[in-house]
Design goal:
The protein is built from seven helices and 14 strands. It has helices at 49-64, 103-111, 120-131, 176-180, 182-187, 192-210, 247-260, and strands spanning 11-17, 21-28, 33-42, 75-79, 83-84, 87-88, 116-119, 140-146, 150-156, 159-161, 170-171, 174-175, 214-218, 237-240. The chain is globular.
Length: 261
């Protein structure tokens, strides 16, 4: 394996906290590729802040103990929560006790390192803007992750507008993610055509409100784009996310690197 820290290359650790797993990796920020295999441990149940932080520390320790890994590289952590000045203001697929938790203090104390923390959809958006479907796109790029809920990230000329929560946008009398998420398709046993029609109505609403240059679709359903994307007809350009399950890791690492400059 190439020695980490070669001149001209830049590396960072990225950790992505999910509802079922906590994944981490070392990211080569010149390419957006993972160096070596990612490492994953199950998300603890209940997913309290202390329990999650213990697993995050374990994942980071595993990565840092690998031969040649950069011990002083920046660290970014993506979590399924609104993060405002390092404090969690919501909790999705993790314990509600996350709300109000100072995540910077918690994760730093558990890992013994300075870290940065951001929303998981924001991390995915950063990854796609820097190394994926949104690369070099000028103007506003909107990333939507369609999974248990709807995560969203807005970038303008590659710069993140954090905590852009379009999954909670009111649409047809309820939060949009209640009816248009991937879990809604499964819960209501919708055909792909029926789901595409419902998702299309939501996307048209978002398009009308924000007029983005590009909408990137990610999350679980992006593994099957041929089943619903051709039925979506918007004035806005559509693209499918390219980094799938590694997007959170890559974006978290990128955020960590940006904060360290």
């Amino acid at each position: 394996m190439e020695q980490i820290g070669t001149p001209g290359q830049q590396y960072a650790y990225g950790i992505d906290v999910g509802g079922t797993g906590i994944k981490g990796g070392v990211v080569d920020l010149s390419t957006g590729e993972l160096v070596g295999e990612r490492y994953r441990l199950p998300t603890p149940k209940p997913a309290t802040p202390e329990a999650v932080a213990d697993v995050v520390a374990e994942v980071l320790d595993e990565l840092m103990r690998r031969p040649g890994m950069p011990p002083a590289a920046p660290i970014g952590i993506a979590v399924p929560a609104i993060v405002h000045h390092g404090v969690a203001r919501s909790a999705a697929n993790i314990d509600e006790s996350f709300i109000g938790t100072d995540l910077l203090h918690l994760f730093s104390s558990k890992t013994g390192r300075d870290v940065v923390v951001l929303n998981d959809a924001d991390a995915a958006g950063l990854a796609e803007a820097a190394f994926g479907a949104g690369r070099a796109v000028e103007g506003s790029v909107l990333m939507l992750t369609l999974g248990t809920g709807i995560g969203s990230a807005l970038l303008f000329n590659g710069q993140l507008v954090p905590n852009f929560e379009l999954g909670h946008l009111e649409f047809k009398g309820q939060a949009a993610e209640v009816g248009a998420s991937a879990s809604a398709r499964k819960r209501e046993d919708l055909s792909w055509d029926a789901y595409a029609q419902r998702l299309g109505e939501y996307l048209e609403h978002v398009q009308f409100l924000f007029s983005p240059e590009l909408i990137i679709l990610g999350g679980g359903v992006s593994k099957n784009p041929e089943k619903f994307v051709p039925q979506l007809h918007l004035n806005t350009e559509l693209a499918v996310a390219t980094h799938a399950n590694n997007a959170g890791i890559i974006g978290a690492a990128l955020h960590g690197s940006n904060a360290a400059r």
